[in-house]
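Batch job 17 of 40 flagged for manual review because the log was empty.
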Amino acid sequence: MSIDYDENPMTDDELQDAARHIAERFTDHDSRFLALMTPEERAGHIRALWMLYHHIDRIWEAPKKAGGPHPVELGGYGAVAGLRDMVDALIGHAEQVQHDAGDEPERYSAQMVVETIE
């Protein structure tokens, strides 16, 4: 049975829980492919995930920084909370694989460069 989320949208708690469950179910797949990467690639991957996490975290923190209520009190931030939890879990997967592989992440520096494509 399929649920029509346009007619029955998920609550904030359901969105956050769904993201957590997806991250948990993704662990084996993610870890297997992370293990195929080089230490340098894993370091770059983690750097990209941290950049995404900080972006999502800025969205989460914005109402409080603006002097408003906590996002939970505002409502509508379940997707933000869920994404934040999911990306945190993805970072955890990558860091665990680094540890298991004996990577020395401090030896690698990853820099992200964004270029305009014309």
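Reviewer: the log was empty due to a logging misconfiguration, but the result itself is present. Residues 12-103 form one domain. Unflagging and moving on to job 18.
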